[in-house]
Amino acid sequence: MILADRPFRTLLSREILRFTRVWVQTLIPPLLTSILYLVVFGIALGARIKQIEGIPYLEYILPGVALMNLVTGSQMNSSWSVFDAKRERYIDEVLIAPMSNLQIALAYSLGGTLRGVLMGAGVLLIGAPFVGIGIAHPGLLLLIGILSAFAFSALGTMVGALATRIEHISFLTSVVIQPLAFLGGVFYSVGMLPEALRIATLFNPIFYTVDAARYATLEVSDLNPYPTIAVVFLIAVLAFCGAWWAISRGPNLRY
Predict the structure, then answer these.
(1) 161 in a domain, yes or no?
(2) Cα angle 38-116-83, degrees, rounded to a multiple of 5
(3) Of the given ranges (19-23, 34-38, 39-43, 239-243), which has the lowest mean pLDDT?
(4) Could you give the CA distance from residue 239 to residue 218 in angstroms, rounded to a whole number?
(5) Which distant-in-sequence residues (6+ apart) come within 8 Å of 227 by Cβ?
(6) What is the pLDDT of residues 188-197, one digit of tens each?
(7) How far, in Å, CA of 29 to CA of 27, rounded?
(8) Range of 169's domain?
(9) Tell me: the pLDDT tens digits for 62-119?
């Protein structure tokens, strides 16, 4: 069994301990930043944009802010973890351990997934009472959160394995993930955009995670929710295949 092997469980435990032992640094600052997004955007824009699709503006943006926190947290965790393993030269011990490449990729991806889910859940747990909303489909929201976190954690695993410099990790976070998150419908409905921008948004993978999470929370969405969830699942599968390839045959795995 893939999940029952002791080396796999050891690596996964290390990945979990990596961020839980310093939770004040890894979990609290992103959580506070997301709460500030809610306060600043909710108050500043909420005074001008009263409602979107009949939902008060602050309620409307809460699922997207939670998903943005989840996506960035899961991606950063796995990408930095793999890169640090290469830089500190202990990736060799991981590679020669009695684990398959699939197990190595899965352990790194699951570690980042847990951090992302905790970060997203933290925003919802604090924001939901503050905003005053319930969650329409909790089980569906949990599924979407896990799939989304796993997808971007696997992406981080792949990039961490392929990166040769710290700048590569920073580029992914600052130049790719964060702009895609802000342009993924977190703070607005895609229906408010011009036609050209609406079409461009359909090529943004974060948009599908945000739209699916918004449906699970508020039962409103820009797209048909269930095909959207299928797209999120497909993104997760493709991202993990990339992570598996990067661990198995990717260049630059040894720093």
Answers:
(1) yes
(2) 125
(3) 39-43
(4) 28
(5) none
(6) 899 888 999 8
(7) 6
(8) 6-248
(9) 999 999 999 999 999 999 999 999 888 888 888 888 899 999 999 999 999 999 999 9
Tokens 């930043």 locate to 33
The verdict on residue 202 lying in a domain is: yes
Domain count for the chain: 1
DSSP structure string for the chain: -TTT-HHHHHHHHHHHHHHHTTHHHHTHHHHHHHHHHHHHHHHHTTTT--EETTEEHHHHHHHHHHHHHHHHHHHHHHHHHHHHHHHTTTHHHHHHSS--HHHHHHHHHHHHHHHHHHHHHHHHHHHHHHHT---S-HHHHHHHHHHHHHHHHHHHHHHHHH--SHHHHHHIIIIIIHHHHHTTTSSS-GGGS-HHHHHHHTT-HHHHHHHHHHHHHHS--SS-HHHHHHHHHHHHHHHHHHHHHHHHT-TT---
pTM comes to 0.93
Q: Is residue 234 part of a domain?
A: yes
Which residue, chain included where needed, has tokens 């951090």?
115
In a domain, 255, yes or no: no
Q: In the structure encoding, which two tokens stand for residue 35, read together? A: 């709460």
Backbone dihedral angles phi then psi of residue 54, each to the nearest 5 degrees: 80, 5
